[in-house]
């Protein structure tokens, strides 16, 4: 049985382009396991601070099991707040975030200094 590819958006976030997930029974044995994984991917102090508790369809219907997720469809992840109606598939990128790849820069604490480089500062 193949994995279903679905896209998840954050509730009310018009600047988030969504994240594509491959949903399979092997990877997510329970609906709670999926919610926990989505929490790790989508939640921080600003967005979904209580974690992902609810998944909605694009028209606001609540999803209660993995079986309801359909191949190629998009869904909205929410914490405890009600579904916010937006056109998630047309999310906009504000000009200041275009071509900015924040995730590609590794934090300095993660990168080891190069041999011969001064301690604490990376040579460019």
Automatic annotation (TrEMBL):
GO terms for biological process: axoneme assembly; central nervous system development; intracellular signal transduction; photoreceptor cell development; retina development in camera-type eye. It is found in: Cell projection; Cytoplasm. One of its GO terms (molecular function) is kinase activity. InterPro entries: Doublecortin_dom (IPR003533), Doublecortin_dom_sf (IPR036572). SUPFAM superfamilies: Doublecortin (DC) (SSF89837). Its main location: other. Residues 103-114 have a biased composition (Low complexity). Gene3D superfamilies: Doublecortin domain. SMART domains: DCX (SM00537). Residues 102-124 are annotated as: Disordered. Residues 4-89 form the Doublecortin domain. This is Doublecortin-like kinase 1a. It comes from Nothobranchius rachovii. The gene is DCLK1A.
């Amino acid at each position: 049985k193949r994995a279903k590819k679905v896209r998840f958006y954050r509730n009310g976030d018009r600047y988030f382009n969504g994240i594509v997930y491959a949903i399979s029974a092997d990877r997510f044995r329970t609906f709670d396991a999926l919610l926990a994984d989505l929490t790790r991917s989508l939640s921080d102090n600003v967005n979904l601070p209580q974690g992902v508790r609810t998944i909605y369809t694009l028209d606001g219907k609540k999803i209660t099991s993995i079986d309801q997720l359909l191949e190629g469809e998009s869904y909205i992840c929410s914490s405890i707040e009600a579904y916010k109606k937006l056109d998630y598939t047309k999310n906009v990128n504000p000009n200041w975030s275009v071509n900015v790849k924040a995730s590609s820069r590794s934090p300095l604490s993660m990168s080891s200094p190069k041999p011969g480089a001064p301690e604490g500062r990376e040579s460019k």
